[in-house]
Amino acid sequence: MQYPEPIAKLIDSFMRLPGIGHKTAIRLAYFVVDMNKDDVVKFSSALKETKDKLMYCSICGNLTDEDPCVICRDKTRDQSTVLVVEQPRDIMVMEKMKDYHGLYHVLNGVLSPIEGKGPEDLNIKSLIKRLQSDEAIKEIIIATNATPEGEATAMYLSRLVKPAGIKVTRLAHGLSVGSDIEYADEMTLSRAVSGRTEM
After folding, report:
1. ∠ CA(102), CA(107), CA(108), 5° rounding?
2. Residues 6 or more apart in contact with residue 93 via CB below 8 angstroms
3. pLDDT tens track for 82-125
4. Measured CA angle at 10 (ends 23, 53), to 5 deg
């Protein structure tokens, strides 16, 4: 038996979301069917508003509803450091930590030859232009993920930026709090040893 067309379309729409398989999509579709009509209208309105009102900041590439974004407009932040992240959601994670008070730059991805993503597909040109035009920037902190693609992107950025005389650092990687050494892989242990700090 086939699903009625509206439910089939809804299931298909949910399956386009990352991490949503067929069974979860069915469950979500039937949840929407059981929702109050006002809640469905609010939900669809929130989806539409997200697409209509959000844009990328012309300075850092973060998602924002005003250009430039609130972080780039904040002159109380440390103007000498720029933390480079893969995606806008990474900024929210860093901001929740409340320990970093500098600026950001969003690459919107990482280098990935397998997926056909080269430097021209990332938000790198605007980063270089930003570094050339803003003499206040003294350090770039590269915060790409500890994946082969993230590492390749970090190395590429480092080679691009270092000749300009700007300090390039990388977030430390290693053992997470509460983890056991016996369960850590060799790469994690190697990073933990090389990134050790004095006590």
Report:
1. 125
2. none
3. 999 999 999 999 999 888 999 999 999 999 999 999 999 999 99
4. 120
